[in-house]
Amino acid sequence: MRAKKYMAWIITAAMLVTSIPFSEKRVKADVLPEGTQMKFVVKDLDGTIIKNSEDPDEEKILKFKIGDEETEAVFNNDEYTIDIGNRESAGLEVSIIMGDVIKTESYSADKTEYDVTMSMATPIDITGSVYDEATSTYTVHVPYDPEGKYELPEGVVMDTTDIESNETEDGIYNYAGYEEGVINYRTPGYVKARLTAVRDDGYRIYTPVYLLIDIDNTPEFRADNNKFYDNNVIIEKGGDLVAGVTLKNKKSWNGLNLSCNYDNSIIYESSDAEVSVDGTGRVAINKDSGYDLVEAVITARDRYTGEKASYSLTAYPETSNDIILSVNKESLPYDNKVSINAADYRTDTIPVNIENQDDYTDIVYSSDNENIAAIDTDGSIHILEVGTAHISVTAAKKDEWKKYEKTFTIESKAVDSYIKVYVDGIEKDITETIEISEDDIQNEVVILPISLKMYNENGKETHKPHYYVKTDLQDDNVTVSGSDIIISKTDEIERNVNHTIEIEGSDWGLNKSKVTLSFIINGKEIDNSSIYSVRYIENGTEKPLVSGKVINGIRTRWALTNEVKVGVLDSENYKVSNDNHAEKRADISFLTSNFEEHNKDHAFYLWEKNEESNYDAFFTHEYFGTDLEAPKLTLVNHENINITGKGLYTSGNASINVMAADKDGHLYAVELIDSLTGDVIKSVGMEELAKNDASLKETNVRFDIPFENNTAVHYAVVVWDQAGRKTVRSLAGLLRNAEYGEDTNVLISDNTPANDRFSVENGPDVNKYVTENGNIYVSGESGIVIVIVSEDAGDVYSGISRITLTVNGEEKTFNADGTGSFTAADNTAKAVLDTADFMTGVIDDKGSRHLSVTVSSEDFAGNVSTPKSYDIYVDRKAPQAEGMTITFGNTGRNKETMTSYGTFYNGRFTMTSDIRDGLSGLKSAVLKVGNRTIQGYVTGNEISFDVGDNVSGNAELVLEDSVGNKNTVPYTVIGAGRGVKNSYIDVDTLPVDIMVAADSKPGKYGWYNGKVTFTVKAADRSLSEKSGIRNVTITVNGVRYNAEAYDNRTTSDKEYKVTVDDRLIMETMNEEGMYTVRAEAVDNAGNTSVKEASVYIDTVAPVIGEITGVKPGSDNAGNVTINIPVTEKHFSAEGNGTVITVRKELDGKTTENVITADRSDRMETVGRYTFTEDGTYSVSAVSTDAAGNKSDERKISFIIDNTNPVVRISGVTDGSYVKDSATLEFSAVEVNYRNNDVKISGTRSLNGITEVLDMGGFVSSTKESVMKKVFTDEGEYEITIMAEDGAGNSSKTERIHFTVDTANPEITLAGLDRASYTDTVSGKINIKDNYYRTGTVKLVRSSVTYDETADRLNITDKEDVTDLFVKTGKESSSRERDLVIEIPKERGNDGLYVLSVTAEDMAGKTSESITEFTVNGYGSVFTFNESLLNLLNNPYVKNVQEDFTVSEYNAGSIDHDKVSVQITRDGAMMQNPKYSVNDLSEKNGWHKYEYVISRDNFSSDGIYRIVISTVDSDGNKSETLKEDRLAAVFYVDTTKPELVSVTGLGKKNYNASEIDVKYELFDAMGIAKVEVYIDGVRTKEITDVEEITQYLGSFSVSQGMNRHIRLVITDKAGNVTDTDVAEDGKYVADFNKNVTISTNIFIRWYANKALFVCSIVCVVLLTAGIVVLVTRNRKKKGTQEK
After folding, report:
1. Tens of pLDDT, residues 547-556
2. Within 13 Å, how many C-alpha atoms sit on residue 547's CB side?
3. How far is the CA of 210 from the CAs of 188, 189, 194, 1637, in angstroms?
4. Rg of the chain's alpha carbons, rounded to an integer?
5. Contact 387, 395 (CB under 8 A)
6. Which of 764, 1079, 1193, 1653 is spaced 20 to 30 Å from 921 by Cα?
7. How far apart are CA 497 and CA 436, in angstroms?
8. d(Cα 642, Cα 444) in Å, to the nearest integer?
């Protein structure tokens, strides 16, 4: 029992442990107070309230449940009320049940009433309807019906109340009515209604429905191809939609094709006002000026459905290079390339100008390489470096949307230079060695007694060269400062040895030049052997030392074993020591046997006694070490290298692993070299070797063998020790374990399998045939061999090692080693197999055989080719033909005619025959008829030939199979039952060509006026031999005229003449005068053809009487009608009889009119014509009948004039102002211009004086006469014009006023020259123009000054001081503006001033004047460039991006030698800072200097200060910054801030409700911001850090499990340290980023995953142990009882 209790307790404890929640406190759910209710309104689909019966015995329609518990609901006022008090609110749900329908509502504290819609009825079934639960409505998409009708399903009706419908764009609602189950609508859109139906059980169904009448008219822009071109329009397609349209050089475009069902409902829209689109989708660009591109979105919208499609449009203006440039005042060369010497433009700029520049606007200059050539906005090029740049100029003409663009190349070339060496101002021969004595050296530094100067190729000394030094000494032993050469650390330089110095000079615009010097430091003239001795003792015997490596520039000598002894011979004056700090003694000893043990080198120093009785080192150090033997090199392993008797091969990715060993621990390097050239391919040095073995005694080195595919390499491996000994092994020697030189095999890289070519060679008289699928057919068995040629491609290859063939399952191998050998030449191997032994398998009863062959090869590099399979078949039997039949295509038409000279067919027929071929298949089948060959077509085993038109000759069938087996089958034509046999056949389907035509042409209306002769031609024109004409018959008006018959097949062309003369006319005369000639021809094949022609004959001409209705030569007002009488024999009501033609000449033009005849009887008629237009008329009348008989001509002339003249003046706008000149065009329009009188007058006024102008005469020569006149004189013009014609008609008087302006505004600046002013500046500005409109004046100042009162710098950059110093002068008039500038001499007024004045007159002519000057009342004026100004405003940066430029302006010159630029970093003065001084002064007294400070000075972190000081020619000193504390100070900081320490996060679990965390930060330049994130949420942000370099902060972390802590620190320069991304130990102290804080022991226990898992395991083990113990006790007790 006790065990059971223990067991139950343990299980309960385990369950308790595993079920502990991880929240700190369980919150009990809220309980609703007593009386809480939920109310429900339940409606059917039609909106009616669903009520339960009041009869308690009747089953309720609605039932209610709370959860699974059924409850009562009280119904009152259309609501059901349920009591839910004393229940938990969480998860409370009420279910409403009606039959099988259930609706559930969840309790909400914000809601007491719930609306529920439900029904047991099935909704109306409308095909394609979609139900929306939110609105309880169905949506039906109805296909658009042009008649506007939608029929409802059977049994469904519509409730006509509460109809909703969309409104069309015309304000009409779409719904048009309802009748008998049909809804009428007007346009696509929607109709919302309620549909009803009655179920079988009588229950009425209500369904609210949206009927969407869907036109399916979604517009879609499409392109047929991915790209197509239309007037330079490029359309790019993405999927099915067009992504974009680029319109180039066009202002209009037809637009994209639009796909939709109803185009008339589409509205086009544009997103940009500069792009318009009309109703057809045509796009127009409404851009009038400039050259900027135009972008818009073009949208097609359906006006009914609102569906849209759009595409983006980008329009570019037309581009042109028709713009003329001048560079440096010279025309641009034809090749658009300008070359200059860079040095000539160090300070000057190169101007770029456009011809007629005033005509252009939006001018932009740009350079593609501003480091070479930068260009200002005014077109001034600054040459900054040697090289090539491309300058582009773009512009637009005013009032024109077109881009003018031209690009030219500017090449700035460097000139050659050279360096001269001077001693005391005298040029020195650089071949001489410069000697230095010990006395010349001061503090281990000596300045060579020479100076350097650099010159360009023209012998001019350069401005400020830069020198770079290379020597055989350490890098920092020799430097160049200015022109001085300084040698330092002379104690490290060996005496009495020549040393070289190579100096390379460079300067702006010059090629580099070099000079090489040599110097020697003369040491004491001492016989070393008389001073000290060095002895190497080995086993008591003195031996020589071995030369070794170089240590710190000092030669090393290596001993082998034992001891080295060094001793001085003159111990009074000399001493030696082990190093420069050890005791100085007369002798020392090196036990070299210990060197290997201690793994170090030893040296001695020699000291000489000086005058102060001290000892100074003066002689070269010597180093000693031990090395017992050369290093060893052995192969460890290799990868992917095939070692064969022929050579070494690899297919790629080869490598070798070697063991380098040196028992003395002096490994120095292991190298992979090219053994042919000695070049080092890859080297592994001591540092890398030491990573594997710090003792440098033994290490593995792996080399990947570099090679290109199909190459041969000669590689060796070299191992060096530090004593300079080496061991060399060839790659082949290592792989074959042979010494270098014993095996010269190279490594062949070959990763390409061989290319196998398969062929079959035939014996005599054997043909072969290869099908498309690779099958090979041959016509015989003997002599057939298979040939395989395998070629190992590439210039370098491994060669073929094996070729394998499998024939009918039997494998045959050809090896390079002689087994089944093949023939080989270089990279090609050839294997030959005779197939005689394999010709044993019969595949059919014809004796044909089949060979199945598979081929592959392998090269020596191991590459195996892909196996290829082939099939060979033997075919020896020719194809056969059986039975031949002829079938006509159209039996009703075709005829067969047999004659003694041949059999003829007049239609196509088909010849058919059965064919058989054994194996290879039919290659060709032709039917030969005469010289024609007809190809057949095969259907199954049947071949047919279409025998077409115009075929003749004997016929035979020729068959051939694919291997050349042939068979010829003859064919004979037999006329059955006719007794005729003939092998000749002729197919003639073409009838005889017949022509019937009159030899002469009739009159205009088809009538002849005399006899007519006809030509009748008959011709048999078959394409081959003709069947021949059989007979020809000719009739006239049905009367036989001629008949001919022919009995041969050679008659092909016949011609006959038929004349309709008086005799024939009398025989065939009919009343209409018409005659018809008919000809009929039949050929031997039975083809019949008929042709006929008809003519009309009339010989009497019409007569015209006198014309009446107007007096000849008269002037007439109003309309004129003339009468023309005509007499003619054949008037016709059908209009093909006689007509009257009237020719009217008006204003030089002739028109012809056919007059309708007013016929009074058959023989006479009168034609009438009315003239209404003004003009001079000359009328002639001629009547021509249908046969071409003409009447005599009748003429009459007269004039009509009712029109006033019209005059116009164009060319300028009334009241406008015109630049330079005005061209006016005067025009007068008058139909009858002969008597016109045009008068033009004008005046010009200027400065109060008016003159009358001579306008010249106006000549009227045409209906519209024009005269142009140009007005070039300046002034105000008034011009008038009027006209009067001969009939007294007068025009209106036209008048125009305009002004011609020929002069630009005149700007005069007095007292404001480009100069430096040391006193008060007084200047004047005057602007004049007769038609002045407006102008601007702007004065800006830039300066850097020191304000002594405020003790600070005042820095201004382009400060607008116009209002301070620019005032209005004397009273200005409308034609003149006068201003004055007065800048008093005051300390605050010094600076660089830029004055810009612009003026514009009424005609738009402009002028501009810009000048700059300085006010130097108190010394130099300084300005800073933008990069320095920005840095002073924000002094913390990660790096300096640009050079600094400080400009100095002075009234006098600056002494260049006294310019000082001082830069300190962290308080230490920078030695030799990089800067340059540019003298930009001019001869007129303008003195400007630029100090360019290189950004390279600021590459390291630190606090920088800059001070520039200069002295002018008068000795005045100027400093940009007076005191060090006011210097330009800024901070360069690339180092991230450091999180020094974090306390309070040392553990992962805390028993607390909150913990406090403290941290310490450090940043050398300053901390800007600290952010604390807990679980990804920023909880604290600190920006007001008091101590900017070091900060102590804290924050709190509230309780929770696995709280993630993150700190983000940002310093002043923007460097960021983030504890989530920073590397451990770098910038971030160690702390726990994830902690659990809780007073709940179980939460802390669970958070400690290791403890939690161990606890669970222990509980399980304990439980298992107790079970085992109880079980044993039971067994033991049972045994005892027994």
Report:
1. 444 433 344 4
2. 3
3. 13, 10, 9, 60
4. 58
5. no
6. 764
7. 11
8. 63
